[in-house]
Design a protein that fits this description.
Layout: H1 3-23, H2 41-50, H3 53-60, E1 63-65, H4 82-102, H5 105-109, E2 111-116, E3 119-125, H6 126-151
Parallel strand pairs: 1-2
Antiparallel strand pairs: 2-3
């Protein structure tokens, strides 16, 4: 079994679950936040919608610089409404999935670096970046989204099993 064959089922499951949650976000609550130090619901949704793009960056580039020397910083995504964010998510998922499926084990082992201002913040094998910056990162923020939704009385879909809202599977 190749690395791609091992990762794709997990990728597909996590992306499908995330999409269901994103589709439940009430548009009229985009500016809501549970605490003054927390992201708004819209900011969190935008971040989740754009997280699969990190799979694209990881597999297409050797590095990404969040604020390249002499250049503009990478822009933060902004909430554009449910349909816009779902379309962004779907586009990034499709592109990342295609790249995952086409990546060889040798290419997964190649190093990838995250930089800021030209300074290397970290360097890891691409496969580790896919697992940490894409999959684990998505699960982390999806957990935040589930709390935001619960606090806004939005029924939660099943994630790894039934929820109090959706009953027994």
């Amino acid at each position: 079994m190749t690395i791609a064959q091992a990762i794709l089922p997990e990728f597909d499951q996590e992306m499908a679950t995330t999409r269901v949650m994103l589709a439940r976000v009430p548009e009229d609550r985009a500016g809501w936040r549970p605490h003054p130090k927390s992201w708004t619901l819209g900011d969190l949704v935008s971040h989740l919608a754009n997280l699969p793009a990190w799979g694209v960056y990881t597999l297409r580039e050797d590095a990404i610089d969040l604020h390249p020397p002499g250049g503009a910083p990478m822009p933060s995504p902004r909430y554009g409404g449910r349909d816009d964010n779902l379309a962004t998510f779907d586009r990034h998922v499709a592109e990342a999935r295609a790249l995952l499926a086409a990546t060889s084990d040798a290419d997964f082992a190649k190093p990838w670096s995250l930089k800021r201002g030209g300074a290397v913040l970290l360097t890891l094998p691409r496969v580790v970046c896919i697992r940490s910056f894409v999959l684990n990162h998505m699960v982390h923020h999806r957990g935040q989204l589930s709390v935001y939704l619960r606090l806004n009385d939005v029924p939660l879909p099943p994630v790894y099993g039934p929820t109090a809202d959706e009953g027994q599977a």
